[in-house]
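Hey, can you fold this one?
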Amino acid sequence: MHNENHLKSSDTIRDIVIGMSDGLTVPFALAAGLSGAINSSTIVVTAGIAEIVAGSIAMGLGGFLAGKTEADHYSSELQREYEEVERVPEQEKTEVMEVFADFGLSPTLQRQVADEMAKDKDKWVDFMMRYELGLEKPEANRATQSAITIGFSYIVGGIIPLSPYFFISNSQMALYYSCGITLICLFVFGYFKSKVTGQNPVNGALKVVVIGALAAAAAFLVARQITG
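Sure. Predicted structure:
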């Protein structure tokens, strides 16, 4: 038996990656920057929670608008294709033939397939949407699902670098624990993200760790420089 392993639910995975990536990195950099300027963990937690709330809403709204735009675009192109198969059916058949010409079918077979496909208008339009325009029908409520997934993933990711500040009053001491916890989580997150997308998991994990570490280090050094 031959088993083929393909990535499923790629849209959901993409949303989780977007939310977790920014959720782990942005609050981590903010906390590091504030820790370089003040000694109070309370202020870091307050600012961090405010950023997580604002960031999750902004990211979720961005995901919603992106999903809504995709759905609206698909709907408008679908309507246009239905109008074209009614108004210029022979031209649309020619476009079908061009698609199958790229697959290496003979002109005779191309014409036969186009004529057969034209008997079912819905399947004909669906074929044109997929192979002429490269558009897949969006899932129902995709925009809302994307917003919720991205926003929740951002919150989960953002709480991780802030967690030590809840228990340690000195912000600079809490930063050491935050760095350790967050870098480990970034590595694990990067590893599994690369794993499911078919990339080298170790290299992918290291890239994510380096990006997060550089962002936090830059924020910390800038804050230290400003406060003297």
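The CA atoms of residues 87 and 125 lie 13 Å apart. Let me know if you want another pass with a different chain boundary.
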